[in-house]
Amino acid sequence: MQKVAIIGAGRVGETTAQILAEKETCREAVLIDIREDAPQGVALDIFQTAPFFEFDTRVTGSNDPAAMVGADLVVITAGIPRKPGMSRSDVLDINVGIIDSIVVDMLKYAPDAMALIVSNRVDVLTYRVWQRTGWPRHRVFGQAGVLDASRMAAFIAEETGFSTRDITTIVARRAW
Questions:
Q1: Helix, strand, coil shares of the chain as percentages rounded to 5?
Q2: Range of 166's domain?
Q3: Which of 44, 96, 125, 135 is the most exposed place for a label (fewest CB within 10 A)?
Q4: Domain check: are 95 and 161 in the same one?
Q5: Among residues 163, 45, 34, 14, which one has the least CA distance to residue 6?
Q6: 102 three-class SS
Q7: What are the Cα distances from residue 100, in Å, to 2, 151, 176?
Q8: 94 with 170, same domain?
C-alpha cells in the first residue's frame, strides 16, 4: 500500500502507526486526531525511531481529515474508552456518533479506500461503517480480540512464570 490513514492518535493508533512503519507495510502513514497537536507529536516520535528500526515509511500527523486523501486503507481507532459508571451501551452510543462523523470524512477524502474498524464495539461499528458508506463488504472489516488475548497471555505468564512466547490464547465474546 502507498498510504494508510489512522484515525485516532491514542495508544492503539500510535501502536498501529509504529508497527506499520517498522514493517514498512505502506510508504506513508498519517495519524489524524481532533486533539490539537497530538497526532503531530505522536507521528514525530515514531518517525524519529526510523534510524533505530531502519524503516523508510513516512509518518505524519494532522488535525485535518483532508490528510486522508489518497489513503488505500483507513484504520479507525477513534472512540472513547469506558469510564467508571458507564455502561457498554453508553460507550457505544457515543462511539456511533464519532464513527458517523469519520464516515462523512472518509466518503469525502478517501472514497476509494478500504476501512478497518478497531474501535469499541467493533462488530456494531463495523456494520455501521458498512451501512453508512454503502461500500461492498470486502472494503469494510473489523478487528477485535487481539488485545484481550494478549492481556490474557500476559496474565497467565505472570502467574505461571512461563514465557509469553510459549502461551497461545483465544478470547471469544458472546453476543450482547
A1: 50, 15, 35
A2: 145-176
A3: 44
A4: no
A5: 14
A6: helix
A7: 26, 30, 22
A8: no
Total count of domains within the chain: 2
| Cα 22 to Cα 68: distance, rounded to the nearest angstrom | 20
pLDDT (mean) for 90-108: 95
How would residue 165 be classed by pLDDT, with cut points 50, 70 and 90? very high
List of long-range contacts for 170-174, beta carbons under 8 Å, 24+ apart:
170/145, 171/145, 172/145, 173/144, 173/145
pLDDT band at 87 (very low <50, low <70, confident <90, very high): confident
Return the closest-CA partner of residue 4 out of 36, 39, 30: 30
| Cα dihedral sign, 34-38-40-45 | negative
Q: Is the peptide bond before 174 cis (omega within 30 degrees of 0)?
A: no
What Å distances lie between residue 53 and 15, 20, 22, 24, 92, CA to CA?
14, 12, 6, 10, 37
Residues 10 and 35 in one domain: yes
Same domain? For 34 and 108 the reply is yes
Q: What is the pTM assigned to this prediction? A: 0.87
